[in-house]
Amino acid sequence: MRFKGKKFVITGGSRGIGRAIALLLAKEGATVGINYLRNATSAEETKRLVKEAGGEAYLYRANVGNLENITEMFKKVESDMGELDGLVNNAVLGVLRPVDGFPEKGWELTMDTNAKAMLFCSQEAVKLMRRGGAIVSMSSIGSHHCLPGYAVLGASKAAIETLTRYLALELGPRGIRANAVSGGPVETDALKTFPNYEDVVNHAKQHTPLGRMGTPEDLAKVVVWLLSEDSYWVNGQVIIVDGGLTLW
């Protein structure tokens, strides 16, 4: 019960990796705030599963790519939970398209939901981390490993990794750590939106030394470790969790 009495917010927490993180935290006694945008049914299901696992949950519908939405969400978080012990920047949205001819609106959508949201959610969460805490942000191997059509998403993830280092440096004196998890391909609904989904899956299975695709739980376990006191001396790091795929 490492997280008994601890409180966390997870953006994009209603499905996939976000849900897996919420459930692992709940199993160890945490209270979790689950942010979502559209799928209220999935969010309610995650809330139910969190309670069944032994935790408490609050739901926050907000577009984290919008600064006004972020501010309003964290006002509700403070009203519901008072203080925070951690934030997981997990929400992701973006346009998959080659650089040549990439649309301006696609750039704005991708950067707002990923990099902008990470910075400004972190700003708001830190105000509630009065006893110190931890920020973990989700990146991907596309930040440093070229993937078809992933250029702008990769750029947004690279921004997240750079911001992570600056947050760690500037917030460390306040007892707040910041790290990122860089994941390889994971079997989620988001991956299924890739136009080359089958190619991605086949490549991962063939080239990952451990011989399979990643699961949401594979990444969630590392995130939860980074939120815990067990990783207290880890700060400003980007941990690659891809089963060895990028060793090729």
Notable characteristics:
44% helix; alpha/beta; 248 residues; single chain; 7 helices; seven-stranded parallel β-sheet; Rossmann fold
* Strand order within the widest beta sheet: 3-2-1-4-5-6-7
Radius of gyration: 17 Å
Q: Which residues form runs of ≥5 with pLDDT under 50?
A: none
CATH topology: Rossmann fold
User: Major sheet, described briefly?
Assistant: 7 strands, parallel
Average pLDDT metric:
94
Describe this structure in words.
The protein is an alpha/beta fold. It has one domain: Rossmann fold. It contains 7 helices and 7 strands. Strands 3-2-1-4-5-6-7 form a 7-stranded parallel sheet, with helices on both faces. The longest helix is centred in the middle third of the chain and has 24 residues, at 104-127. It starts with 6 loop residues before the first strand and ends in a 7-residue tail after the last strand.
